[in-house]
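Standup notes, protein team

Yesterday: finished cleaning the Schleiferilactobacillus harbinensis set.
Today: Helix-turn-helix domain-containing protein structure.
Blockers: none.

Input for Helix-turn-helix domain-containing protein:
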Amino acid sequence: MKFEDQLRDQRRKAGLSQEELAEKVGVTRQTVSKWETGQAVPELMKGKILADLFGLTYDRLVENDVTTDNPDWEQLSDQIDWTSAWTKKYPILQDYQHMTKARMLSQEVADLYDRVGKELGLSDLDTFLVVKDMVYQYYRTHRKPAEK
């Protein structure tokens, strides 16, 4: 079931109007309408609020859209501004963008991304996943014990 269908079904099961749901989530009725018609998707934190409201996990709320071979998930994921979604919890995601040195390093990361994709013959998505995993593996093995 697509996210928008699941959302509409869960809202109706809860006996809520779009306006009532919007009030509980902190958005407008028009936003809920856009979610239910597939014209927009909620940012991650709003999605979590929706899932909690319906007594579901986030994964369960988006159910079939979470599979990697489902094009709807890729489209949904592309529509989410992940930096904005995580900035409230991790302000550094917004702050670093204004650092001069970070802009220079960002170009180096972009060059590495291009190199990994080209040398390994990967698609853009696979390149992103591999580079992300490389960074995560480094982080996991090099972080200080207090951070674990």
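Follow-up from PR in the comments: The chain has two domains: 3-82, 99-147.
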